[in-house]
Amino acid sequence: MLRYPDDSLAHHIREVAPGGVDHVVEVSPGQNAALDVEVIANHGSIAYYANNDGDDFTAPVVASFAKNVRWQGLLLYTVGQDALAAAAEDITAALSSGVLPVGKAAGLPLSWFPLEETGAAHDAVENGVTGKVIIRVSDENS
Fold first, then answer.
1. I want to staple 13 with a disulfide (CB 3.0 to 4.6 A). Which of 27, 38, 39, 93 is the partner?
2. CA-CA distances (angstroms) from residue 48 to 22, 45, 56, 67, 88?
3. Would you list the domain boundaries of the chain?
4. pTM exceeds 0.85 for this model
5. 51-72 burial code (b ≥16 CB/10 A, e <16)
6. For residues 17-32, b (16+ Cβ closer than 10 Å) or e, as one string?
7. How far apart are alpha carbons 122 and 133 in whole angstroms?
8. Per-residue pLDDT of the chain (142 residues; tens, 9 = 90+)
9. Cα separation of 81 and 31, whole Å?
10. Start-end of H helices in 1-142
11. Which CATH architecture has domain 1-74?
């Protein structure tokens, strides 16, 4: 599992992906643009859908075009219902088949909270919990 901040994070990513990563899904381009470009593979794409560091970010221009990097903003609310349905179907199939593993062993721990503990779930995110925070909105038997 890789965690940041870590001054040697690019090195650790390159150990796992020596040729660079093909796709980066970024929530903080203002903080991570340089790291993203450092570890992206030639012809890679960096999709950002949030910005935890303000409304603007600066991308390393020469390093980006030297690797033919594609920067792409994404707002799920505007991609259209067909694209959302196809994505949900593809993700469900990947999870069901084990191609997209989750959980601590896969490096993506899941932290579950019942609906009445939504505040605690928010606190966990604010405090930098590793992995995904999931709120259970009902009992499975309901």
1. 39
2. 14, 10, 12, 18, 19
3. 1-74, 109-142
4. no
5. beeeeebeebeeebeebebebe
6. eeebbeebebebbebb
7. 8
8. 677 778 899 999 999 999 999 999 998 999 899 999 999 999 999 999 988 867 888 999 999 999 999 999 999 899 999 999 999 999 999 989 989 888 888 888 999 999 999 999 999 999 989 889 999 998 865 4
9. 31
10. 9-16, 29-39, 61-66, 81-97, 118-126
11. 3-Layer(aba) Sandwich (3.40)
Amino acid identity of residue 110, one-letter, is: L
Joined tokens for residue 11: 């090195």
